[in-house]
Design a protein that fits this description.
This protein has 18 helices and 14 strands. With 526 residues, it is α/β, with parallel strands linked by helices. The strands form 4 sheets. The protein has an 8-stranded mixed sheet with strand order 9-8-10-1-11-12-6-13, sandwiched between helices. Strands 2-3 form a two-stranded antiparallel sheet. Strands 4-5 form a two-stranded parallel ribbon. Helix 2 crosses helix 3 and helix 17 packs parallel to helix 18.
């Protein structure tokens, strides 16, 4: 192996992006006060949220921040779209939006210049529970949003965080949901989109922004997107289909290929890993959403709702198991080519997903440089919420806490700097701080000095979660329709179902997998 130094730390960059957790939710209890020089956590602070007056328990006073009682909290899933996040950050909930999942005439947006108070998480979660359950939620139900996890509950993430670098002021880019934030991560913009959809083709057909992948291609550098089985599609590919569609068959592969590439020293310059996000047994750390679908369906008189998006026993535990495998693979790699000395692993999340955080998000430079209102009138002039982000490298001292403000587009800034990839993609990544300066160990840390990690055993789930031979219900038809629309928009021949022959659950899944196999052929490999 050639002699390597800290200047080689970014020769190979691996990013794994999980889903929908705030910094406080997973890492707020990482360090006790005084254990490190400075750390913006929750211990030693009096953190709470008020109970809104329209709830029957308002006289009980504010709800203090506590510890999650199980590994599936909060359940059901909180709101994450723009108007929900506005309520969470500013405490604004217009009466017309109370008890509604979708905004009714307003987006709970704050007046210009109003600082975030971080005191509307109870109000928004209770409002979502009212919608989902069709009744006023109890104190015990909505108080779950004001909880997070201990280091003992999250042993893998906590051990890695204490063993390397934790960014305690890393923010996602948009105060909203998945697609806009994932688009900013690789493009520095979401082309004006603030929510995932509607329309169904918002991102695949109407997001032409140049990406980091394009810059890597132009520089002759390699990249791959790895998706964890049994995932049949890549969100990255869908979000950036206008740019990346020609690469679907060559650059989008299974994580089985990732582990082989690590072992043989064949990692590309840039690797992006997607956990299993859509479907059963998701290991993306996303709060449970199958329960949400089930309760919503039952509240509308559907006795046996589809369970295509059923939840595993715990996506947090399953996500930690995936993270442990990725980390151990990189730690043990000594091959010529990519190895533990020249590979940096960045662990991050797309957005906070409605879970509580106490640090107000900062302002942000709009991608165009000047405020230019997009969808829902948002000018992209303020950040999303703080999210857990870790950096792992042989050149990072243990118990490093990176205190400066970083953001999702810091990845673009860092890669542009390291590989001379040209001018900024947008004004947003131009303003982002590179993290190239965190590799401060004068000598590489021996592999034996990297912390050992042991994930909790992943509980077994049911073998079947869909009534395979029953007719496809409303939810299943909607999901299949979305996949079909996506396929047609990308040039895939999608057969139209016969209206007089309702599809069964089995047939619906097979039809969806047919479309996705055409789009992402290598993700069908196991």
């Amino acid at each position: 192996m050639a002699r390597l130094g800290p200047e080689n730390a970014l020769d190979h960059v691996v990013v794994v992006m999980f889903e929908n957790r705030s910094f406080d939710n997973l890492l707020g209890r990482l360090y006790e006060p005084g254990e490190v020089d400075a750390f913006e956590g929750v211990l030693g602070k009096e953190l709470s949220n008020p109970i809104p007056a329209w709830l029957p328990d308002g006289a009980r006073g504010p709800v203090s921040y506590g510890v999650a009682g199980d590994m599936n909290t909060p359940a059901p899933d909180p709101g994450e779209e723009f108007h929900h996040v506005n309520t969470q950050l500013f405490g604004i909930l217009d009466e017309a939006n109370r008890g509604q999942a979708e905004a009714r005439g307003s987006f709970n947006a704050p007046p210009t210049g109003r600082p975030a108070t971080m005191d509307g998480f109870i109000a928004d979660y209770a409002s979502m529970l009212l919608f989902e359950n069709g009744r006023m939620p109890s104190y015990d139900e909505y108080a779950k949003i004001m909880t997070g996890y201990t280091s003992e509950q999250m042993p893998v993430m906590s051990a890695i965080a204490r063993g390397f670098a934790t960014f305690d002021h890393w923010f996602c880019e948009v105060p909203s949901c998945t697609f806009p934030n994932r688009s900013f991560f690789h493009a520095g913009t979401s082309s004006g989109h603030v929510i995932n959809f509607p329309p169904l083709d918002a991102f695949p057909a109407h997001n032409p922004a140049e990406t980091l992948f394009d810059r890597l291609d132009a520089a002759g550098l390699s990249w791959r997107v790895y998706c964890d089985p049994p995932c049949h599609a890549s969100l990255t590919g869908i979000i950036h289909a206008a740019r990346l569609r020609p690469k679907f068959a060559t650059h989008f592969v299974s994580t089985a290929q990732f582990f082989d590439d690590v072992e043989k020293g064949n990692l590309p310059t840039y690797s992006f890993i997607e956990p299993q996000i859509i479907g059963y047994a998701h290991n993306d750390m996303h709060p449970p959403f199958g329960y949400l679908l089930e309760t919503m369906a039952k509240s509308r008189g559907i006795a046996e709702p589809d369970r295509i998006l059923a939840d595993p026993p715990s996506s947090l535990i399953a996500g930690e198991e995936l993270l442990a495998r990725i980390y151990r693979a990189i730690r043990s790699s000594t091959a010529n080519g990519s190895n533990h000395l020249n590979t940096t692993l960045l662990v991050t999340f797309d957005e906070h997903g409605g879970t509580y955080d106490h640090v107000p998000p900062p302002t942000a430079v709009p991608p165009t440089g000047e405020p230019a209102p997009g969808q829902m009138g948002f000018a992209f002039d303020r950040s999303g919420v703080r999210i857990p982000t870790l950096a792992i490298s042989a050149w990072i001292p243990e118990r490093t806490v990176v205190r400066e403000e970083y953001r999702a587009t810091s990845l673009i800034a860092t890669m542009r700097e390291r590989w001379k990839l040209g001018s900024p993609l947008t004004a947003r990544d131009a303003s982002a701080r590179s993290f190239a300066g965190i590799f401060t160990s004068p000598a590489p840390r021996a592999q034996d000095d990297w912390p050992e990690v042991t994930a909790q055993p992943v509980p077994a789930g049911p073998e079947s979660f869909v009534p395979m031979d029953a007719p496809l219900g409303l939810l299943g038809k909607s999901l299949l329709g979305g996949v079909a629309a996506l396929g047609k928009g990308m040039g895939v021949d999608v057969p139209d179902p016969k209206p007089d022959q309702p599809l069964t659950g089995r047939e619906g899944i097979e039809a969806a997998q047919h479309v996705l196999a055409e789009l992402f052929p290598r993700l069908q490999e196991r």
